[in-house]
Structure formats: structure tokens, C-alpha cells
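Researcher: Structure for this, please.
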Amino acid sequence: MRIGIDLGGTKIEVIALENNGQELFRHRIATPRDDYAKTVEAIAGLVELAEKQTGQRGSVGVGIPGTLSPFTGLVKNANSTWLNGQPLDKDLAKRLSRDVRLANDANCLAVSEATDGAAAGAHLVFAVIIGTGCGSGIAIDGRVHAGGNGIAGEWGHNPLPWLNDDEWQYQKEVPCYCGKSGCIETFISGTGFETDYQRLGGQPLAGAEIMALSRQGDALAERAITHYEQRLAKSLAHVINIIDPDVVVLGGGMSNVDRLYTTVPPLISTWVFGRECETPVRKAKHGDSSGVRGAAWLWPL
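Model: Predicted structure, C-alpha cell format:
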């Protein structure tokens, strides 16, 4: 049995999987924010609950909103800032009396979808989370590719390529939390989509509300989603020019905008070198469950 943990800023979810991927148990609790010791204990409690409910002992994988430094062994780059600088894998291993594997949550998405999801069997998978923020992960033959610095896939904190005049102005007005400006995250996260709609003159609305207006023929909402499609296409073309993945998988809130799978692929070709691109762009098969399933799959067969 494999146990996966998805450690988020507001909730922690556990899943227990059979070797064939069948779900045996799932549960979620609120995250003890800003308290590292309680977070460790909460994760351990969920593992113990899953084992009690299934009557089996399992391997443990954890997806986190950051990464482990390969140099210090400590968590870095986590937006759940109380995790930063902590030896989370070692503390969990000690608490649970077994080895624990950690990976970035976007890498867990990539592993999940490469194992038994929208990119099952693909050699090289690039998986994107476009939600409140924007992250991505890389899976090679179903395994995490973290890179020598532990940051492979930190695509959202590269600059948006091929800026037009409006995008040059946008980056001046909307700095990224990382301290830089022009980051892809500020443009193509769900938050970025909502921000652009307001910049264009709209009222503060959630992404789903803006899309509802677009379907009703609202010109401003349609302009915002058209901007978004162009920016997502440019951003993906940049990746395709570098690693040329076999499949691109989209997860997170904006991945539920179904028109993206029709509108974005033809736009990518405009920006790819040579203007030829047949890379499939697919919606994550497991949706919001991909992260926690991928954490469980950090221990392969």
C-alpha cells in the first residue's frame, strides 16, 4: 500500500492506494498554519489514521508547496513559510519510523498524470498548476526530475516571453511576490487572470464568474480570456523550445476552462521555433486528486 500526503497552506489531505492505483482511503484536515511542530504531528496523524482504517502499513510520500534543498536538506521556496529551513523529511521519518519521500506539489502532479493519468506512459511530461499561483513539474518515465538545485520546473518564476506593449506595462503594475517583476505566475495564474480583468476595467470577480460572463458574450471578459490564452501559449512555447515534452498536462483552477484545450494548442505553434508543434495539451485526469496521488506514487512499483 502507498500513502500520499498533499500538504497545502489551508488543508492537508491523505490518500491510501493499492498497488494498482485503487483508492482505499481518503481524508483531509485543516493545516495548522504557522506551526511547524503541529504540522508534522498532523501529517503523522493522517498516516496513522489511513493505516488504522485500511489495516495495512504503507510507504509514505509527501507533496509540499516548496522543495528540499539538495545542499542543506532543508525545505526552501515554500509559500507555507513556516516549513522553510526545516528538515521535514527527516522529522517525519523519525516520527513515523520509516523513510519518507518529499517532492514539490507540481512534481507530484506530473508523476500522478504520467503514472495513470492524462499522460500515462509518456516519457517526458511537463505538468502545470495554474491556480492561485503558478507552478510546474517534470516527470521522466514516471519519476520526478528535480534537477541539481532541486528547482526543475520553477517555470512560473521565469519572465513571460515576447512581451507586447500592454504586457510591458502590466509587469510594472503587478510585481511578483518573489521580488521580481514580469514573472509568468503574475500573468497566467488564476490570480493573474482576475487581476488582468480588473486592469481592463472590470469589477473584482473570481475567475469562474469572469468565464461565465465570457460565455454570455461579455466583451470585457472575452478580452481578458483572449489575453490569457495568448500568454499561456507563449509561456508553454518557451518550455517546448527547451525540453520539447511529449505531453503538457494542466491542473489547478484555470485548467477547468475547457476552451483552453481548443484555443491554446494552435497558438503555441506561433511561438515555437520553426512554427511546428503537435504537443498535446491535456487536462489532468485526476483533477484536484493528482497532487495527493502523485505523492503516493513517489514510491514506484
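Researcher: Any notable elements?
Model: The first helix runs from residue 36 to 54. The two ends are 10 Å apart (CA to CA).
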